[in-house]
Design brief:
5-stranded antiparallel β-sheet; alpha+beta; TATA-Binding Protein; 3 helices; 109 residues
Length: 109
Amino acid sequence: MSKNSESRLYPPHKKVVLKPTYKVQNIVTKAELNVDLDLYGLAKLSNDVDYEPEQFPGAIFKVHEPKAALLLFKNGKIICTGAKTTADVRRAIDKAVELVNRYIASKGR
């Protein structure tokens, strides 16, 4: 950038006041269930869970409302991505907990 064009961008005689705007697009959150997960079993229980261990070590749980994707790992750790608010994060993780509880209940029969 030439000195002349720089002076047009930032005039030395004027104070520049920046007013950025913000929009949260994606919140990434880590959670722990403190229990080992049967990723094969969860994938069989729900069509919203994809598990292909030869491609990725975690299962992908697609939550439709709120829109988010959760990566579920065998050690019970969860990565939630795609949520736009902390309330959406909580709701998405709650859906993962419901899924795990449904799986546990189905094994108790």
